[in-house]
Amino acid sequence: DELTKMEGYKKVQIIRYPRLLQRETAENRYWKSFAQPVVVKEYASVSSITISPVAPHDIAACSSTRVQIYNASTSSLKKSISRFKAIVHECSFRSDGKLFLAADDSGLIQMFDTDGRAALRTFTGHTRGVHVAKFIHDSTIMSAGDDGAVRTWDVPTQQEISVFGGHKDYVRAGMPSPASQNMFLTGSYDHTVRLWDMRQPDPVAILDHGAPVEAVLMFPSGSTFLSAGGNQIKMWDALTGRMLVAFSNHQKTVTSLAFDGAGKRLVSGGLDCQVKVYDVSSCRVVHSIKYPAPVLSLAVSPENTQLVVGMASGLLSIKKRVVADGAPPPKERHPPRAASYRHFVRGQDHKAEAADIVVETTRKPKLTKYDQLLRKFRYGEALDALMASKPRPVVVVSFLQELVLRSGLVVALRGRDDEGVRPILAFVTKHLTNPRYSALLIDVANVLLDLYAPGMGQSQMIDEMFVLLGRRLAVEIEFQHQLQELAGALDVILASGNRAVATA
Question: Are strands 192-197 and 171-176 parallel, antiparallel or unpaired?
């Protein structure tokens, strides 16, 4: 066949659409470097995460009636403590990383050595579940929970030092001041954040957040702190009690707050499955990360090498930042073994020098299966071969455009049975509303309707796909009508604004 021996056949040219403008900032690149995610399925939702403040910065996560400790280097389970009779809500390390606290739903607080599994100290006094348990300093801890009481404890004697009342609902957040051994914060579902001093019974400050408080976080200086409740995060001046700024970037409740190792970035997690990173100086979002389930807890390692997120579905995500300085040196390559693949392709990347004589050769381009069939004008078979290869949408659109230029679109689409029409009709239905493809795919849809609409009722599958295509079009048309109404309303607002400026 002379047609199959034609010289100069040009392959189907893939359409190159202009790229959408995306600003790739240094901040985005930095947080995207937290790669190599390790995802662990826990027994239940991960309610609390804490990272040891000293190397090697092991990770402790609370899930169900267990505290799981993971190795920071390998992300593998190092130890599992299951000596609890109720759900564990909180765990936190001491500043030296040798001890940690665990508080459960029965009101019990236990202290453990990181090298053992037996409880070293037990603190009882809360009548309901405890959600906050942290070291104020090495020998004193503070706790709070669903009984509304805030308590401080002496570690050596296991005795209660003082009880602070005032909260009228569950206390779900708390943090000691990094700058003082006597000050600490608590946040409650009664919408208040209270700043306490151990040396006096009444709170130093009572601030109204305006929503149930899920998390509090104090700056290292101790003069400023954050509260999270609802979908808002608020920054407060601890000295005057004045709100400095409020920002809302989550669509649902913010559940957790944390600083990065340097204290220059704030990280928040919420029930909208988002983790957002803010610049502390401007309170603007510099990066966002999407997770598969609502985020309940998170932590960043002191060296900024790990981002750990706990989710309501029980998933624990551990992302590590790739540090270039610690990358292993490249392996030394030995000469290729005779008759091996490397032996036959050696020298292909050799760069010719000025004195070398270069013999130019042209390599015959390799055609894909659909190109080979298209070269033989077998349009229908070429389209089937393309759809069977599961190509990218832009490749299918480019091929259909080539058929239009060859006046072969009708030839390729007609005479098909149910199985032949199904993949093409499914592709058109899925991508018809894409602005880049819609002009061409509308023509393809019209051809399909002209060819196969007269036979409606003969195949239930094809009938249902045509009905789905109609519904997709109806939704898109309604959406376009709403956009036009919105554009008209904006035009009126802008016109009235310009008129007001002109008359001023």
Answer: unpaired
